[in-house]
Amino acid sequence: MSKRILIVGAGFAGMWSALSAARVIDEAKRADVEIALIAPEPQLHVRPRLYEEGPANMKAPLTEIFDAVGVKFVQGTVDQIHTDRHEVTGQDAQGRAFTMGYDRLVLATGSRLYRPEIAGLAEHAFSVDQVDEAAALETHIRNLAHQPDTPARNTIVVAGGGFTGIETAAEMPARLRAALGQRAQVRVVVVERNDAIGPDLGPGPRPVIETALRELGVTLLLGQDVARVDANGVTTADGTRIESNTVIWTAGVRASALTAQIPAPRDAAGRLYVDRNLAVEGVPGVYASGDVASAATDDVGNRTLMSCQHAMNLGRSAGHNAAADLLGLETIAYSQPKYVTCLDLGAWGAVYTEGWEREVKMSGQQAKQLKHRINSEWIYPPRADREEVLAAADPRRIVVA
Question: What is the pTM of this model?
Answer without folding.
Answer: 0.95
